[in-house]
Design a protein that fits this description.
Length: about 100
């Protein structure tokens, strides 16, 4: 038994569906599905490229920020080496105390 949609113009005109019209409808559905898959594939590819481009941009931006922080730290050490040595000594003492208190 063939299910006929009452709103289908051909069904309204002829009252039934012949094999050719069923084949034509199946072909149309297949083409529509193929187009939809193509569109989804294109959108997914575009989204992947956009994500890659954004990741590359953020990576480069992070590298620049790390470089700037390193440069600033070097300038601070050069402008006040005594404070830098005292800070390093303090950090070393704290690490030593933390390690010996664990035993």
């Amino acid at each position: 038994m063939t299910t006929v949609h009452p709103m289908d113009p051909e069904t309204q005109i002829t009252g039934n569906l012949d094999a050719k019209s069923v084949a034509d409808k199946a072909k149309h559905v297949a083409e529509t599905a193929k187009d939809s898959v193509y569109d989804v594939r294109e959108r997914a590819t575009s989204a992947a490229h956009n994500a890659r481009d954004r990741a590359e941009y953020e990576f480069e931006r992070g590298k620049e920020q790390i470089g700037a922080a390193r440069d600033e730290a070097e300038r601070a050490v050069k402008s006040n080496p005594g404070l830098a040595v005292a800070g390093a000594l303090g950090v070393g003492v704290l690490i030593g105390m933390a390690l010996t208190s664990r035993r």
